[in-house]
Request: fold
Amino acid sequence: MTQTTATATATATIPTTTTAPARPGRAANIGLWTLQVLTAAVFVFAAIPKITADPMAVAGFAMMGIGPAGMLTIGLLELAGAIAMFTPRLTGLAALCQVALMIGAVTTTLVYMDPVMAVLPAVVLVVVAVIAYGRRRSTVELIAFLRRLTARG
Reply:
């Protein structure tokens, strides 16, 4: 057998599909759901002052140079992420989006406020990162579903 034949045979046996990460065990699933509920509550409570244009929230965002439209957008993203935490197919993607949102929150807090105030957004960032990792299978399944859907159309 020549080197070319051996290489062709070896590459032909490599599967072309990707395997989704394993589902979390029962204890991990319960832990993830607990984190999801708590995180959703945090995001709802954080979103309410932004959506209702609470004067303190408006003043805080104005200090950072973010107007009412930016504040409302962030509040709606927080609320949407909180709701998506209860939709199993969207949980991984929601947590991933919340990771991006919290990176912005930590960065903004470090730049415009006392660094000690960045502790809470940093903790929330870690929690949503754990959820995103634990629910990565749902993200992979969602992407596969969307690929199948767009391949038909």
